[in-house]
Give the backbone structure.
Amino acid sequence: MHHRIREGLSRIAVAMRSDDWNRAKATGLNPTQLSILDLLEGREAGLGVKDIAFHLGVSQPTATDSIAALERKGYVAKRSAGSDRRAVNACLTTEGRSVLDASGPTDSVAEQAVAALPGYEQENLLLALVKMIRQLQELDAIPIQRMCVSCRYFAPFAHPDAARPHHCNFVDAPFGQRDLRIDCGDHETASPSSRAASWDIFQQG
Ligand code: SF4
């Protein structure tokens, strides 16, 4: 079963890579460069090369080359990262943001495939993905993502309303399972103990 699901995910990844190429082609970038712009959006302080490589699952030399290409185009600028003057982060420029705006949203084939599922299957798939991504984080295979389940503003099952049981303390509003975020710009990572406690409640709910 595990192997067959992996095979299925790899087929979906092929379609998603094709989506990425189509979207990148329209911007004159390659998919890795466009992914870097996507990653930097909403991260005002930017990210260092090591973090960018870890997020995208590429080598540091590949990330370095891609950042340099984006810098030459004026889509990314390097800025000092905190008190260590030698540490620099890559940050999105106004020009880089314009490229992102022009590149999306797209009617990707992957999203079309999801849209063909009934609503309850979409919700179950979203939940399964949240759990898988969280497990990958626990294995240190990917960095902590900007998901609700790792956010300090997340209060799982804080309400009796089955349609909207969770609470976001950032916007101070309830929300449902189908609104769980995978990449939220307002996310702030909770402490390890808060994440573990929140995850326990989320799973039991
Ligand atoms: S701030 Fe974003 S990630 Fe955090 S709980 Fe609210 S919606 Fe979820």
In short: The chain has a mean pLDDT of 92. The CA atoms of residues 123 and 178 lie 5 Å apart. Helices lie at 2-25, 31-40, 49-56, 60-73, 94-103, 109-115, 119-138, 192-204. The radius of gyration is 18 Å.
